[in-house]
From TrEMBL:
ATP binds at residues 103, 143, 181-192, 208. GO terms for biological process: inositol trisphosphate metabolic process. Mg(2+) 1 binds at residues 279, 293. One of its GO terms (cellular component) is cytoplasm. Its EC number is 2.7.1.134. This is Inositol-tetrakisphosphate 1-kinase. 1D-myo-inositol 1,3,4-trisphosphate binds at residues 15, 56, 154, 192, 295, 299. The lineage of its organism: Eukaryota, Fungi, Fungi incertae sedis, Mucoromycota, Mucoromycotina.
Length: 329
């Protein structure tokens, strides 16, 4: 009889609910896995034995960056534990995850394969006051450099012309580093992709921005987390967002699932992560695929059987030799 293996979980309650992992212990009873919630306010060594730790510590990072001393102590305790217990598999290593907490480092680590996809032209500025020194082509998205874990990391602006650049000074603080990403016309449909090791790929479609024409003249401020998640033809609140299901159907018919799978495999080879997500736009005129964002351990909320996928992925990792860098092969 195979011995039960113990997996420590470091997740916020919100994240557990989003991913339907609240009752993962009950779900995993027949799997030979024992899940325990780790308390980072006390030594993790007192909560062993552990064969694996699975985490999403962005909430702790957010509080730590905001000056929360308890959160800082918790994160330092977790970092120390990870580095001092190489025989406990960490899903995923903190240095790998850290690269996706910052949009600049994300774009730098995710180099394109031009036979599969491109990455929109992206520029960086230490703050919005430097924007006038850059050679910008409009329209563009202006985003905080921090991808998560800090207040306002999902507050963005779609800027149609240089005349609207001054508006950004009201939106970003003088010390906020920002990135500028070209707007890709994509018929108002975003392709949302989830990846789980070794090769589980799930494709969904979300409403997105209409192709910009000359009638679009004002900067559009928005929270990317509050954009509509479903195509609803009755929706009239988001006049810059495509809500017609026919638009989704048209883009879905063009998407090549095999190509998306190959893009996911390419990104996994670069990132060496177990769970991640990425967003793709299909350019309206050329059909070119553009990866515009990559994030660590998204909600997987559209994936109905994610708890089963989660358990299967962890079981496979536990059966594989632990690499020197404690990461997926």
């Amino acid at each position: 009889m195979t011995a039960t293996q113990t997996i420590g979980m470091v997740f916020s309650t919100k994240k557990l609910k989003q991913s339907r992992l609240v009752d993962i212990s009950k779900h995993a009873r027949s799997s030979g896995l024992n899940f325990v919630d780790l308390d980072l306010s006390r030594p993790i060594e007192d909560q062993m034995p552990l064969d694996m730790v699975v985490h999403k510590v962005s909430d702790i990072v957010a509080r730590a960056k905001a000056g929360d001393k308890n959160a800082q102590a918790e994160y330092e305790r977790f970092q120390t534990f990870c580095s001092s217990h190489p025989n406990v598999r960490i899903v995923d290593p903190l240095d790998k995850v850290a690269k996706l907490l910052d949009r600049k480092s994300t774009m730098n680590v995710c180099s394109p394969d031009h036979a599969l996809f491109r990455i929109p032209t992206t520029l960086y500025a230490a703050n919005v006051h430097e924007l006038h020194t850059l050679d910008l082509t409009f329209p563009i998205f202006c985003k905080p450099q921090s991808a998560c874990a800090v207040s306002g990391s999902h507050h963005m602006v779609l800027v149609p012309s240089s005349l609207e650049l001054a508006q950004l000074q009201q939106h970003f603080t003088p010390n906020d580093p920002v990135i500028l990403q070209e707007f890709i016309p994509h018929d108002g449909v975003l392709v949302k992709v989830y990846f789980a090791y070794p090769d589980h790929v799930f494709i969904f479609f979300r409403p997105s921005f209409k192709n910009i024409d000359q009638g679009f003249s004002k900067a559009l401020f928005f929270d990317s987390q509050k954009l509509p998640k479903a195509f609803d033809p009755e929706s009239s609140e988001q006049r810059h967002i495509v809500t017609d299901p026919a638009a989704r159907d048209a883009v879905e018919a063009k998407v090549d699932p095999t190509r998306i799978q190959r893009i996911a495999a390419h990104l996994q080879r670069q990132l060496r992560l177990t769970f991640f997500g990425f967003d793709v736009l299909l350019e309206s005129t050329t059909g070119e695929y553009h990866v515009i964002d990559v994030n660590y351990f998204p909600s997987f909320k559209e994936v109905d059987d994610f708890p089963d996928i989660f358990i299967a992925t962890l079981k496979q990792l536990l059966e594989e030799p632990l690499s020197p860098n404690n990461q997926p092969q």
